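Run: sequence + magnesium ion -> complex structure.
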Amino acid sequence: MIHTQGLRYQYPRGPSLVFADVQVPQGATLVLRGNSGSGKSTWLALVAGLLSATAGSLTVADSDPGALAQSARDAWRARTLGFLPQKLHLSEALNVRQNLNLVYFAAGLPVDPAAVTKALDALGVADLAARKPSQLSGGQAQRVALARAVLLKPRVILADEPTASLDDASAEAALQLLASSAQQCDATLVIATHDRRVGETLGGAVEHRIGAA
Ligand code: ADP
Ligand code: MG
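>> structure
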């Protein structure tokens, strides 16, 4: 679940953003809409505890990330959230399997090779485990990043513009994968997007618009 109240964020040398209140029950899907520059990525960063709100309150899977000390917040994020960022941030120094192993290090847990195989397999990319990220197509890289995001069965999955560079068929497939992955761990799913195609695919999603229409 995600609840926000009176959330604001002021960039030190940038705009002051004011966000309308959001309430998403556990396991539900939220489509966060808004034009480019309206604050979608900022909102995701606040929910992920990557930025601290200037004002307002926030509850994400029963915790307020802003109230946690830095190390507790990083541990909380690693165990609670799955993040599918717009830039996938796969390490080119590591192969696909090793990129997923990093999730365990971040969470302070022992690597579970069988779980890594299972997560890659569920997204149809197990045979790519030994490749470097640069040896993947865009769609394959996104599947790897999604496998990484759901590896620890997070309570909340945040996806930033997951369809931005995809054709219609790939966008549809990516959304179905996100939705089914979230369903499998009963995670709350947030998809930040300015893509009109999102929503046609996702029945029953809550829609929330930020910024001016
Ligand atoms: P969106 O994801 O909807 O495109 P963002 O959350 O990235 O929007 O940005 C919201 C606003 O904050 C924009 O006006 C953007 O220029 C500004 N912004 C984003 N990051 C920074 C930053 N690090 N410093 C200053 N301003 C920023
Ligand atoms: Mg953005």
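>> summary
The first strand starts at residue 2 and ends at 10. The pocket of magnesium ion (ligand 2) is lined by residues 40-41, 160-161 (CB under 6 Å).
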